[in-house]
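Marked as duplicate of an earlier ticket. Keeping the data here for the record.
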Amino acid sequence: MSAQAPSRVILVRAKSFVPNPATAADNAFQNDAPEGQSNAVTSAQALAEMDAVAQALRDAGVTVHVFEDEDHTRPDSVFPNNWLSTHAGGYVAVYPMYASNRRHERRADVLEMLKSSYRVQTIVDYSGLEPDGIFLEGTGAMVLDHVSRVAYTAVSHRADTHVLERFCTDFAYEPMAFEALDSDGVPVYHTNVIACIGTDVALIALEMIRDEQRREEVRERLSVNGRTVVELTEAQVREFAGNAVELCGRTPDGRKRHVMAMSGRAHRSLRPEQVEAIERSCEIISVDIPTIELAGGSVRCMIAGVHLDPRPTLEPEPTATAEAIDEHPHTADGQDVAQGTAEPS
C-alpha cells in the first residue's frame, strides 16, 4: 500500500442529500438546487452520482466500503472525510465540526467496521472541542502529506490552529498553516478545495496564498522531495480542480496503479500540460457529479481514505509443524486414568 495513496476508501450513500443551509454562510463554493426542483429529485440525482463514483473506483481496482444513510437531518453526510481520518500504524482521528447539524454525521458503525476489518490501535477523538467553538474538519481542513508528514492548512472558521497543533503533536505531522483568500478577499473554507497532494504530483492554487513568503515556503516544502507542483488558477479551483485525491488501485491482471480521482468538471478545467504532468504518475479517473457539487464539495470531499493494515480475512493454513503437533490431539491424562476411560496402550 502506498503511504500517500490508500487502496481502500469509505463512501456514504446519502439518500437525503441537499445543499446544507447551515454551511452556506462561509462556503463560497456552495449553490442552491435549481429553482423549483424538489428535494426528492435532488437527492435521487445525487444518489446516482454517488453510485457512479463508487463504481468508477471499483473499476479502477480500489476497495470501496459503502455505508447507507437515510437520515434526512444529515444533508452533508456524503462528505465523511470531514469527521474521520485514518493513519498508518493503526491510528484513527475523529474531528470537531463547525455546523451543528453535521456533528451527528459521526457514526459508530463506521468506526466498528474499521476496528473489525483493519488493525486499529487508537482512536483519538477531538469532537469534545465543539462546545468551546474550536473546529478542525478533518482532511477537508487539512491536506496531509503522509510521506513527509506535513499538514497543510488554510486557516478558517473550520480550521483552528490550536487544534491543528494538537493534532500534529498527536500524529507526528509538521503543521504548515497559511491564509488563503479568493479574489473577493473571502477565506477559503476548506484546504482541500485548493490543494491535492499525491505521491509524485501536487495540485495547488498557490496564487490564493497572498503572503508571498509563505507561498514560496509552501511551494518549497511540497517540491523538496522531487514532487511535481501543478499550479492551479482560482478559476480552476472554482471548477473543483483542487478537490482531487490520489488512490492506489489495481489493473485487471493485479498490477498496482495510481489513479487521481476528480470530477468531470474538474478534469475539463485542466489545461493539456497540467493533465500531462498529472498523468506522468497517475491515471485520471473522472466522474460528473454536478448535483453533489452544489453542496460546495467534490470527489475528494466524498472520500475518506483508509490508511490502515487490513486484518486477515481467512484462517491461515496450518503449517506442517503445527499439523505434526496436532497429529494425536488427545492422549490419556490423569483424569482419564482415574475415570477408567483411558484407551489401553
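See parent ticket for discussion. The chain has a mean pLDDT of 91.
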